[in-house]
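Quick log. Single chain, no ligands specified.
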Amino acid sequence: AFDLYAQFETTGRFVLVDEYDVAGGGIITELVQDDQEDFRTEARERDSAWVKGDVGAEDRAQHYGHRAAVVLLTGPDVTAKGFLARKLETVLVAEGRHAYLLAPENLQRGLDADLVDTKPDEIIRRFGEVVRLLTDTGSLVISTTNALKEPMKHIVQTVQTLVNPIPVITIHMAKDIQGPQPDTDLIFAGPENFDDCTHQIIDLLKSRGILTEPPRGRADFQYSI
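-> predicted structure:
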């Protein structure tokens, strides 16, 4: 909450303090809303009423050997984002990680079956809420923007807003390195060695403190139909 300077001069001012030093100040002239305002309100109200179990995020991290996080692959459809996403999931699961590939196309055929292309924001909102549920299980959620027909920046910002404070790692797949590139955590241009790309992503997750040592011991399960 705040007051506008034109209405209340005394409370319409602010000061920025860096430890014990005054670093700056200003006045509040107007409220500027952005396209994330509704999503922030939704996330705040949802989290304030979230029903929690007895197993917390730290417990899950200790058990799985990693924190919950989102790896979101962006870029044109022809850059094999889906292939790299599947490969990353395979490697992480082979290490004993709790990783899951969430394909937006699957949501379109189920959860989003009642929507049409004229509601892109609602499609992204539902996608973000599903990601939020999966990360609450402690999972490493891997996904692409293939089926989300909105500008990449808007998609990433919306997912970040809805899953905050869960980290969202963005990997951009480009056809080439010519021209300006988006501000993402990693950029791969026309990659030929997807094994190397996968290990670069894993190294990044380790450097961010998301991955630790793989959990020890693996159980063998027999599945039959």
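The longest strand covers residues 21-27.
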